[in-house]
Design brief:
- It is a single chain.
- It is built from 6 helices and 26 strands.
- By secondary structure, the protein is an alpha+beta fold.
- It has a 14-stranded antiparallel barrel with strand order 6-7-8-10-11-13-14-17-18-22-23-24-25-26. The protein has a 5-stranded antiparallel beta sheet with strand order 4-3-2-1-5. A two-stranded antiparallel ribbon has the order 16-20.
- A hairpin with an 8-residue loop joins strand 2 (87-93) and strand 3.
- The chain starts with a helix and ends with a strand.
Length: 481
């Protein structure tokens, strides 16, 4: 009996030893499995800081967007995180381009992504080959293999870090406040953002606020825009960093546009309107309500620095209209009357505006609208041109001064829309001085070269110095750091 008890005791020790050994093996296997999974994950995910050095592009081909979105949907991804208009591909150049130009590393749809192994398992060979360029999208159905991406896509320059979208919470895409340095160059405007100070130095050709874009106003202006008060409201400070923006500068006369024949801009309407001698003082203020910064007040004024007097001018420097029958010398004639010169004098606006990010629940809203409602003032004064080189406001009957004299002349209305998703663009419509001014910009290459167009037409009777349809387009270079 004693021997049996000893044997049972030995057997229990063996069993206990085997159980402990088995548990140790299982624990080791799990640890190994976890380590292996961590290793695999580290190889199949891309560090966001490294992504910016890889080729990337956004897919804007509707057919492919639907296929990719559907694949994510069928795999059970949360539909609230998916976005068909935010499909981005991260890739690496293939060392053997004769096989296919790119190796796809990551594909994102909204806020979720598939890595390369998940793409291979779920997207299918044909779709992957169309996305990487092995199959040309248009010619794939014909059985061709052109090794190119001919579907709609938008390259993201390597130096720009990966973001969920190109959208940003800013009130002006061409004049962004979310970067340290910005430079915009076009025929309409030239602007420079000076570092982190928030200062902007701008040169603007034309007087858009009263419906006279580009050289149709006969003037240009240089202003320095300075922020005065920081916005500490966490809900709006990203898009509106300052509650007060003040600007100060001057307007000067331009001579271009009087006669466009023989120039590269001969398709643009010539002008008659001019700024008078002496220049103007330009000042303004954007004040965002501290209790609700999305709403604010805009005030702008352009005041002539001296009243019009007899002037000696250079022949051909001023646009003019033919002499009307009712314009005559009073008393003694000063000389041969050659024309009537319209001069743009003081102007100004006072408006209430509202900034609305339609999808403000997103970290980077894609759709933005601004509304302005207020009053506008403008003044144009006629003077006489005699002996081809003298201007005078004196001694002539029948000269007109155009000021607001009915309700429509005072009204200022403007609505501006901007989209910044896969294909950033924007447009606006403005009613001021009874002139309808429309503006649009669209991308040409990436997010740095755009095309901008402006068109104005009076909705009242045409004044002698106005053009029925003034249209102008310009490339826009936009650089940010």
């Amino acid at each position: 009996m004693k021997i049996q008890r000893i044997n049972r005791h030995i057997n229990m020790k063996k069993i206990l030893f085997l159980v402990l050994l088995l548990l140790s093996f299982v624990s080791f296997s799990k640890a190994q499995s976890f380590d292996r999974k961590a290793i695999i994950d580290s190889l199949t995910t891309i560090d966001p800081e490294i992504r910016k050095y890889f080729p990337r592009w956004r897919v804007c081909e509707t057919d492919l967007q639907i296929q990719i979105y559907r694949a994510f949907q069928l795999l059970g991804y949360n539909e609230k995180l998916l976005n068909m208009s935010e499909i981005e591909i991260l890739s690496a150049p293939n060392p053997y381009p004769e096989s296919n130009p790119y190796e796809l590393l990551l594909i994102s749809c909204g806020k979720v992504s598939m890595n390369s192994s998940e793409m291979d398992a779920n997207l299918g060979v044909n779709l992957i080959n169309m996305l990487n360029g092995s199959y040309a999208f248009a010619s794939y159905k014909k059985g061709k293999n052109d090794f190119k991406r001919d579907y709609c896509y938008q390259d993201i320059p390597p130096e720009i870090p990966v973001t969920e979208t190109q959208a940003a919470t800013i009130v002006s895409y061409l004049y962004p406040t979310n970067v340290d340095h910005a430079f915009t160059l076009s025929l309409f405007d030239q602007a420079l953002k000076i570092g982190e100070t928030g200062f902007w130095l701008k040169n603007m050709i034309g007087t858009d606020d009263i419906g006279y874009p580009f050289w149709s106003a006969g003037e240009s202006k240089v202003v320095l825009k300075r922020p005065l008060y920081v916005n500490y409201d966490p809900a709006t400070s990203k898009g509106i960093p300052f509650l007060i923006d003040a600007y100060l500068g001057g307007a000067y006369r331009i001579t271009g546009g009087i006669d466009n024949k023989g120039t590269i801009l001969n398709w643009v309407s010539s002008r008659v309107l001019n700024q008078g001698p002496g220049g103007k003082l330009v000042a303004g203020l954007d004040f965002y309500m501290p209790f609700y910064p999305l709403v604010g007040v805009h005030i702008n004024t352009e005041i002539v620095l001296r009243e019009m007097q007899d002037e000696i001018i250079k022949p051909g420097d001023y646009g003019f209209t033919p002499v009307r029958d009712d314009v005559l010398w009073e008393g003694e004639e000063k000389g041969r009357l050659d024309g009537i010169v319209p001069l743009l004098r003081s102007t100004g606006q006072a408006t209430v505006f509202y900034n609305w990010w339609i999808d403000k629940h997103k970290p980077n809203p894609e759709h933005y609208i601004r509304f302005d409602v207020g009053i506008s003032y403008s003044e144009v004064r006629e003077v006489g041109l005699y002996n081809d080189k003298f201007l005078t406001p004196y001694g002539l009957t029948g000269l007109n001064t155009y000021k607001p004299n009915e309700f429509g002349d005072w009204v200022f209305l403007k609505a501006e829309y901007r989209s910044q998703s896969t294909w950033p663009f924007g447009f606006s419509m403005q009613y001021s001085n009874q002139i309808l001014l429309s503006r649009i910009y669209i991308p040409l290459f990436g997010n740095w070269l755009y095309l901008e167009g402006k068109h104005s037409t009076p909705l009242r009777g045409l004044r002698p110095y106005e053009t029925k349809n003034f249209f102008m387009i310009s490339p826009v270079l936009r650089l940010t750091i």
